[in-house]
Amino acid sequence: MIAEIGHLLLIISTALALLMALVPLYGVMTNNGYLRSYTRVLSSSAALALVTSVLCLAWGFISDDFSISYVANHSNTQLAWFYKIAAVWGSHEGSMLLWVTLIAVWGAIIALQHYQDDPDFIARQQAILGMIIAGFNLFLLFTSNPFARNLPNIPIEGRDLNPVLQDIGLIFHPPLLFLGYVGLTIIFAAAMAALLGSKLEKHQAGWLRHWVLIAWVFLTGGNALGSWWAYNELGWGGWWFWDPVENSSFIPWLVATALLHSVIVTEKRDGLKLTTLLLCLLAFSLSLLGTFLVRSGIVQSVHAFASDPTRGMSILSLLIIFVAGALLLFALKGERFKRALDFELVSKDSFILMGVAILVAAAMSVLLGTFYPLLFELAGLGTISVGAPYFNAIFVPLTFVTVVLMGITPMVQWQKDRSLQLKPLLMLAAITLVGATTLCVLHKEPMNLFLWLGSASAIWLLGCLILSLFACKGQNRKFSRRMLGMYIAHFGAVVSIIGATAISNYEEEAMLRMGPGQGKPLGDYIFVYEATENVESTAFTALQARIAVLDAEENPLGYIFPQRQTFKSNGMQMSQAGIDRGFLRDLYISKGVQLSDTEYLVRISIKPLACWIWLGGALMMIGGLLCALPCRRRVSVTESHPAQQPLLAGESA
Questions:
Q1: What string of DSSP letters covers 240-297?
Q2: Is 453 a residue whose pLDDT tops 70?
């Protein structure tokens, strides 16, 4: 009965979303305040219906209701309760239901908070959200119903959640990523509302900046946590593989980063309106394109949710409808947002614009590398693979140029005293060149371009942040929370760059045939395989290696316990890495297939500064949240003349 209630609520929310798409918009068009006032009621009602529908699905998992096909395919009576909750969004149907629910909830919060501030703008935005919710709901009802029954053949036991997904990363990674996608949906609807109203006013740009920041924070967290999950759970020890499904969430993040910087200029200087609106449309379109990639079955990946061509074509149809409609409206109304550029070539605004262009170019290069093999095969030209060499060769240099601009942009003294600022910048450039070149010379591969670019990026950006802090102090400029957030986020980028550069160039690894009594020196450590132990848990049995770690003088440092797990529900085997984590290095050991009665294939890795990659991501999230928090400020005379208002140092990038 609970499943039928959830299904009915999904149908009701679809009807409410259709009304939400039509009634407020008609009220705005006819200047009918009574019809327009239904915005909050309809959005809140649709959100409530969808939240209750998700709770019904969650109850199906908690109560082990295997008459629901989705529950039977992704749960088991032996599954821990927190994984049962996570299984709600652990596969295609549930994740789509969660996604559309989060869109409705975020939309309802916006309608309740901001409707009185600008009724027409919010009503138009909610109407666009209503169209999107209705489209996703219809997709769920006709192709991906999470409440479909297994009648009359109800299984006694479920198939269990995919063992790869039974990790704490699954509990948080998808919701964070979906919240990021929801944020892109919100800003898409806001851009459409601005286009429909033929204006983007200062307070609307302020809301847009706030929503973009929140979306960017969640996208950053989703990508970082997904990388951390792959590092911990998949057993291959990498943190990024340029997998098509990984790229599908990374590409919108790049565009959202460009949008974040563009919308700051729009809010503060009333500039780049056309660029900001186009990036809003592009970010949402790319998130839908990534959804099509993940759920259509056209690529095979451990990250993919589904492999049903029918679902893929349905998502592609939604993509075409939304994107074509948005681009048509942009073509018709975009001319009204044009504004001549009124800033100097050497200025914060020009640096931001260049950074935006490079970030979009980087996103397009990743998009090309991701889809080129698919297009090549569809054209009947055979199969081709585009791997890490292409992405690194294109993306790393573009990242270097972006980092150079990131470092220069916050320097508020450029426009006041270039000669004063130029001297320390030239000194920093010299330090960067010498430092990066020295690291390359000392490395085992002196001509390693990627090591030079990564090292130079980190040295340059860190130095520029320090110079910028001194410049602000010298001008007695107030250190606002937004400025602090900017510095923390940019410092997080430095930390991630250092971690990625170190692990990519200084990792030591050995692939060994090991059994009890055998040892191997690697780096400054000695690894000794002492014994193989049998481990049993509720969900799986495992052959666990007990590997002692010794220093160079053979003093014991501890043990690492990699496992080869066999899950009871489906017999699936997987490798669970043993990791000795440290601030300066990780010792990473994964246990592979059995080679003889006592010997196994063992991969041992020393990964320098591995945790810095995700520590940097956490710092970027903290910085973004600080910038996103609302703050009270005095209204100055310059606010009535946005074109004359200077950017704050902390809000430039």
A1: ----HHHHHHHHHHHHHHHHHHHHHHHHHHS--HHHHHHHHHHHHHHHHHHHHHHHSS
A2: yes
